[in-house]
Amino acid sequence: MTRAVIASEDSRFCQHHGFDIAAIEKAVQHNEAKPARMRGGSTISQQTAKNVFLWPERSWVRKGAEAWFTVLIETIWGKRRIMEVYLNTVELGPGLYGVEAAAQRYFGPAPPP
Q: Which residues are within 8 A (CB) of 108 and not within 5 positions of it... i.e. 6 or more apart?
């Protein structure tokens, strides 16, 4: 699951320190060219900061707080913990949070041992 998330959400997760400047610049260029089809440039670290500590509304205030929390979690937690928390807090369907909840919803509960 970790590899799939990195491949689909943030291919440079292991190389950056919370912010992928190239992805942000690419998103800005895309959004200027196609404002009706906005694209984000957030990393897994930024999404984790938002999911755990902040509210979902899009605003510059929230983005500023997200940047602050991203720096903190990158400094304190490290990549393994960030990924663990991300996988347990990401919304994978309406009101469906975390990969275990999604697996149970989409594939049924695990059989008894």
A: none
